[in-house]
Amino acid sequence: MSQAKHPHYFKAMPYTHVDIYRVLLAYGVTDPCLQHAAKKVLVAGGRGAGKDVRRDIREAIETLERWEEMRSEEEAASAADSATKPQPGAVKP
């Protein structure tokens, strides 16, 4: 992959070593679900916690599925909220 073709994938770092938290900060990943999934994928099977790659990836997928559910919940709440607000110019009964 070329930095010239894909500069958005490259970040300058003033450190000799970085951890997942520095990577998340560098890329502006602030959503906790996305942070959790990224961490699971980047160290899948390598933390020594007795979890294999398949289990870590499954947990990352479950976290991303929850992220999608949360967006749907937010959209539904927003739609319900706008449905109960009076419309501009509407006449009250």
Strand portion: under 5%
Q: What kind of sheet is the major sheet? A: none
- Any idea what the radius of gyration is? 21 Å
Give the rounded overall mean pLDDT: 88
How many helical stretches? 3
Q: What level of helicity do the residues show?
A: 40-55%
Shape call: flat
Secondary structure category: mainly alpha
DSSP summary, beta strand count:
0
Order of helices and strands: HHH
Low-confidence spans: none
* Measured distance between first and last alpha carbons: 64 Å
General description of the model:
- This protein has 93 residues and is mainly α.
- The chain has three helices and no strands.
- The protein starts with 19 loop residues before the first helix and ends in a 9-residue tail after the last helix.
- The model has no long low-confidence stretch (mean pLDDT 88).
In short:
The protein has helices spanning about 20-25, 30-40, 55-85.
Write the layout of secondary structure elements.
Layout: H1 20-26, H2 32-42, H3 53-84
Which features does this protein show?
single chain; 93 residues; mainly alpha; 3 helices; 54% helix; flat
